[in-house]
Design goal:
alpha+beta, 6 strands, 12 helices, extended
Length: about 325
């Protein structure tokens, strides 16, 4: 292809004519000239539109206002006290004490006591035995034992001293007045005799007599003879009153005049708790209390049965 002649430019400047020829050459089909890329738009921020410097953005409608950042409180440490954490490794600090109650191999006596207690909870207990679990309340028992301590029988030392004085008085030819003291009576056979003769005014029975058959019939006898009776915790407590290790039953036949008012109040409370409730107690069975796992299984089974019954009705 020939270039067109421009007389004004071609005569004076051959460089200009060469430039004109290059501009007039046609480009081949499918060829695109490189054009400068358009100015790129700023990419959107994931946090949304950012505030322009020097301008404050208004809070969005219906949105929460921006929460100001909390200032971190700097904890001031005293340089005089250095923090020294314990190291529980070998040769280090002793570890803290743990509860090893479940890992102790207890003596056989203790294990038998605990097994007996659990068995009494699981098995059904007849009313004659179950009544020994209903004992006198703490306040009333305290008042009763205070009164019983006033009428403790003499011990061996006091008896020896009394007999010695009596012997000296007889040796001197003096007459000795033998006044019968008012004391607590003890011994199962002796107390039974006093109940049958209606001489007993109050009978106190221990709840943990072993075997229990020794005293299991005593509440029925007291009710039949209309003698007030009560069941208290601890045969050792009863034994300490009469200078013995243990005592299954105690009895009071009479009291001093100054103690009659207090004794009558104790008798009224004991009658209301034991003698008057005898018909109710002799029909009430004990035991039958299963463990926590067995109770959970029973409740789950009952819920399932109730759910099935409700589905049948619907």
């Amino acid at each position: 292809m020939k270039a067109r002649a421009y007389p004004l430019l071609a005569s004076n400047a051959p460089e200009v004519s060469l430039l004109i020829e290059l501009t007039l050459i046609k480009a081949p089909p499918g060829f695109r000239t490189a054009s400068p890329p358009p100015p790129s738009a700023p990419s959107p921020s994931p946090r949304g539109p950012q505030p322009v410097a020097g301008k404050k953005m208004a809070p969005k409608r219906g949105g929460k206002a921006p929460v100001p950042a909390k200032k971190k409180t700097v904890q001031v440490t005293n340089p005089l006290f250095e923090k020294r954490p314990k190291q529980f490794g070998i040769g280090g600090a002793l570890p803290p004490k743990k509860d090893l109650h479940r890992f102790v191999k207890w003596p056989k006596v203790v294990r038998i006591q605990r097994q007996r207690r659990i068995l009494k909870q699981r098995l059904k207990v007849p009313p004659a035995l179950h009544q020994f679990t209903r004992t006198l309340d703490k306040n009333l028992a305290t008042n009763l034992f205070k009164m019983l301590l006033k009428y403790r029988p003499e011990d061996k030392a006091a008896k020896k001293e009394r007999l010695l004085k009596r012997a000296q008085a007889e040796a001197e030819g003096k007459t000795v007045e033998a006044k019968k003291p008012i004391v607590v009576k003890y011994g199962l056979n002796h107390v039974t005799y006093l109940i049958e003769q209606s001489k007993a005014q109050l009978v106190v029975i221990a709840h943990d007599v072993d075997p229990i058959e020794l005293v299991v019939w005593l509440p029925a006898l007291c009710r039949k003879m209309e003698v007030p009776y009560c069941i208290v915790k601890g045969k050792s407590r009863l034994g300490s009153i009469v200078h013995k290790k243990t005592a299954s039953v105690l009895c009071l036949t009479t009291v001093k005049n100054e103690d009659k008012l207090e004794f009558s109040k104790v008798l009224e409370a004991i009658k209301a708790n034991f003698n008057d409730k005898f018909d109710e107690v002799r029909k009430k069975w004990g035991g039958g209390v299963m463990g926590s796992k067995s109770q959970a299984k029973t409740k789950a089974r009952e819920r399932l049965i109730a759910k099935e019954a409700a589905q049948r009705l619907t």
